[in-house]
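Review form for a predicted model. The reviewer records the input and the model, then writes brief findings.
Reviewer: anonymous (R2)
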Amino acid sequence: SSVKKRILIVDDTDAVRRMNKSRLTLDGFTVLEAKNGVEAVKVLQSEHFDLVVLDLFMEPMDGFKLTAFIRQMPQHSDVPIIVFSARSTPEVIEQAMNVGATLFLVKMTTSPIKLSENVKVLLKG
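Model under review:
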């Protein structure tokens, strides 16, 4: 449809948000940003999103708590959540998936183009 899919990027690093926002915007998505979990919750309570990309290690409110919170929100309980983290030990990945992440991507090996490709797959186009 002609309605742009809406994505929220939650990351405490400006450069990470900016780089990925510009790629996703080029690829036709509407992108909003939040710097941490607390900011993200405010935006999620007032706006609709089709997908959320979030970092795990942020203050205040980390990505584990944010993911669990999103899963409790009736309007976002089914939204795909991509965890986008620099730390990717098996324990971290397992914990993220357990609280409700859809997909885990490692920052070092995921370019903005690759992130966008994953977003397209999850949103089927």
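Findings: The helical segments are 14-26, 37-46, 63-72, 90-99, 112-122.
Further findings: The CA atoms of residues 53 and 82 lie 5 Å apart.
Recommendation: see findings above.
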